[in-house]
Amino acid sequence: MILDPAERQSYCAGAAVRRRIADFFGGALPSHGTAIYVAPGTEWESLVVHLDIEYVNFDYPAHPFVAQEQIFEFQRPVISALVTILTNCDLNPLHLLTGRGHHFVWKISKQSWAFEQLAGLGRMFASLRRFYAATLGPVGETVPVEMGAAFAGLGLVIEHVAHQIKALAVETCQVPVELGAIEAGGA
After folding, report:
1. Which helix (H) or strand (E) holds 103?
2. Dihedrals φ, ψ of 7, to 5°?
3. Is the CB of residue 119 less than 8 Å from the CB of residue 146?
4. Running DSSP on this structure, what letter comes out for residue 27?
5. Is residue 40 predicted with pLDDT exceeding 60?
6. What is the C-alpha separation between 97 and 79, in angstroms, rounded?
């Protein structure tokens, strides 16, 4: 990871990186991209939450791509647990599917009670405060302290939710449920 802001800006200015960014947004920027909404300067209005549930098989990495029905069946108890938790919290996220799993995406407005609670929960070390205070983006924006604290608080809440999911799903899962794509056990 590049920590120095000038190095990051230089890296992001590279032609290959710019092409990949344009590809991500659906075409040559700025005139032919297919992204629905990109607005520099408004990114600090909300936290975007992205909870990624994937099937990972270290012994057979192609498995998710050759047996989609089976891997989605493996994930069914996990998704059911997550949907129960989100429903109990009155959250209705955007639910996307990829070849390896499910993605649940929603936002938390900076003006909301939830954002305020997350900011109060989150803690940042001095080194992270300094990192966020340095210019990060191509136009020199920084991460406000309140946003950084809310992001840290969100990380704690997501970790708690992940443990709840694991506890609810473990009895009916056909495969181990882990909180990260980390190889566990095996020969």
Report:
1. strand 101-109
2. -65, -40
3. yes
4. S
5. no
6. 12
Most confidently modeled of 57-61, 69-73, 78-82, 129-133?
Answer: 78-82
Task: Identify residue 122 by its one-letter amino acid code.
Answer: G
Tell me the backbone φ, ψ of residue 103, rounded to 5 degrees: -130, 130
DSSP per-residue string spanning 129-187:
HHHHHS--STT-----HHHHHHHHHHHHHHHHHHHHHHHHHTTT-SS---SSS---S--
The verdict on pTM exceeding 0.70 is: yes
* Strands 46-54 and 94-97, bridge-based pairing: unpaired
Q: How many CA atoms lie within 13 A of 39 on its CB side?
A: 8
Residue 134 vs residues 43, 144, 149: alpha-carbon distances, Å: 16, 10, 16
